[in-house]
Amino acid sequence: MVQRPAIIGRRRKARLRHKCAFGLSKEMMHRMLRVDHAGEYGANRIYAGQMAVLGRSRTGPLIQQMWDQEKKHLSKFNEILAENRVRPTALLPLWNLAGFALGASTALLGKEGAMACTVAVEESISEHYNSQIRALMESDPERYTELLQVIKEFRDDEMDHHDTGLEHDAESLPGYWLLKNAIQLGCKAAIYVSQRV
Fold this sequence. Notes:
Layout: H1 5-21, H2 26-54, H3 60-83, H4 92-107, H5 111-139, H6 145-167, H7 176-196
């Protein structure tokens, strides 16, 4: 039996209302998880680059401590992607190189450069997590309780890293605001692209 276009249109509208009433669409959830995984992957590569340059300095243990937390974040998002059958972004090879290069190049500027990078990246990630928390709370907080807990915990860790960077002289780097804004612009572009590719 052939369906009439009017019936198809009504069914599509009913599906859309259902998605809006009971949570985020599958596509939106996949985008959210994909970009979170990409962000944690990129953060791991940034800290790897910083450790390659500053690992044996007095700043090394501090960077290692933050990197260890990022490794836990990435591990958790690897689990979440697998559980929800979400593919990671196709851009992981690019984020591998770009993250390491960003971490190493800012670390070559010294401790202050590495900390400026940390402040910029962690502030961007925290803001992104906050927007996701708002979206999940507006959608269906009971349905997303576990994911909300994970994102809130990771957001708090990112803010701790941000504050650590400020406490360790990030703002004393000459050109701090220029570097911070450039890195944050790159983070926004990476978030946008990773959601879609």
